Give the backbone structure.
Amino acid sequence: MPNRKAKYVYTPRKQEIPLQSNNTSLFTQVIIAIAVFIFAVTLSGVLSINSMIQTWNQSILGSLTVQIMPVNDADREKAQAETLAYQERAIDYLKNVKGIAKISVLPDSQLQKLIEPWLGDGVDISSLPIPRIIDIKLEPGAKINFVQLAQDLAKASPQASVDNHKLWLNKLIDFADGLKALAMTILFLVITITSGAIFYTTQTSMGMYKDIIEILHTMGAKDAYVAQQYAKRMAFFGLIGGLIGLFLAIPTIFFIASLAQQIKGGIISEAHLSFGDWLLITSLPFEACIISGITAYYTVKKTLQKML
Amino acid sequence: MIAKPNNTPAIIEMNNVGIRYGQGPEILSDIKLSLSKGSFHFLTGKSGAGKTSLLSMMYLAQKPSRGTMSVFGSNINFTNRDNLAMLRRKIGVVFQDFRLLEHLSAFDNVALPLRVCGMDEREVRQRVTELLSWVELDQHMMDMTSTLSGGEKQRIAIARAVINRPELLLADEPTGNVDNDIAPKLMKLFVELNKLGTTVVIATHSEKLITDFKYPILHLQNRALHIRYPSDISSLSRTGGKYA
Ligand SMILES: Nc1ncnc2c1ncn2[C@@H]1O[C@H](COP(=O)(O)OP(=O)(O)OP(=O)(O)O)[C@@H](O)[C@H]1O
Ligand SMILES: [Mg+2]
């Protein structure tokens, strides 16, 4: 007579739907790893561009200088009168620009002080063809398109010009904004494609395990029971794939940063990732985990509606 | 709700039910059936007569292609998915082809209906080990199901069907693969469950079962359902099983 005593041996509870034991699981992890890699590198780009734009904006914000080039004429009196007329026209135009708080013409005394180091004391500036300078205080937070302003100003008063550095920075900011928009599009596409891949692998897997799912249903499993199993698995794949992607992305980000450092001129060196930026980048595996889980959950729910 | 003349609530009620697969012909037509609580029926009919099809409607895996059907008083056409799941929890099924999860142990297979309802693992372990030793499978409790014999699988399938103490037990050829000495023991299990109030339907080809246990018979022939009562059974065998 064999020993009839019950032999219960504790073993970790096995998956009812054996999701870890097929090759779609490897595929999912690879897809997510690639997605997180691209996402992390692109995101670091976006964040660097942001930091650059911020630095540039700060140097643009606050104030603006407009120069009125002196009119050249043998008749000095006439030339001066014409220069002043251009100055008035520039001021008239500027008064109507939104976002400008205060317009002040630099007085002769101050102009003289600025020039002194070059020309020495006692020069009568009224006798020299010196540019007139209009100092403009901008309202805090004013959004001004300097390129547009420069064009309009030149139309209103051909002798007036906005200082070059600002204009150049402004163009750079526009370029950076465009780059940022492109990068954001990439980020959006990466999320869409990854969710799509999770959707299709989940559906494929459900087709593969249709028999098991039907048995679970007959036992009285609700849709959520099946959905949870898939969500847990996919979330796990998301985390693993995400960690691998991040692991590869970090050295890549440093490599790109070192390349950027080599471009002299200080433009790129204004780019840096803050602690918060790094926190965002290193949290990507967790976001991949959550997105994978949620996508799988709703894919299962939706697909089960088509079964009885 | 349909008023019942005899006041015992029907577990399953079918009216003008027909079933077909895809665009094929009807396998069963105009089925009218009312299973009262606590009843015990055999389901017979030639191979291909539609026994499995009829049972699959009863365990809510298949919707009738026409007619109305209610299970535990709920019209299944107006029951949402979660509530259908709740109805299925009250039904135990022994499939003709077992449908065990081959990659799981005998234990995990029997535990399935309990875990699906979210039962506490300690109680799961207690109930499952108890039942597995009752069907004489305690030696194979932790064995992978795919390594077991046909008769052992059948006993696992039966254990899984009854572990939840179902209100309705549907068994498709449940004693087809087991030894002659264990078949009566399994039948005794069904009878015991029936005495405790479970409504039972057993599809079978076995003449011996039908004659040994004098329960009414649901017989499928020519797409129709006929009900015969034990007193008619001797006349049935005399006419060679042909009646209309
Ligand atoms: N999934 C299906 N798709 C198409 N036809 C089916 C399907 N299942 C069953 N059938 C057909 O329905 C008819 C009844 O089959 P069913 O399995 O219900 O018979 P059965 O009485 O259980 O037979 P058996 O005694 O051999 O188990 C058969 O003609 C079969 O070919
Ligand atoms: Mg059958």
Remarks:
- The mean pLDDT of chain A is 84.
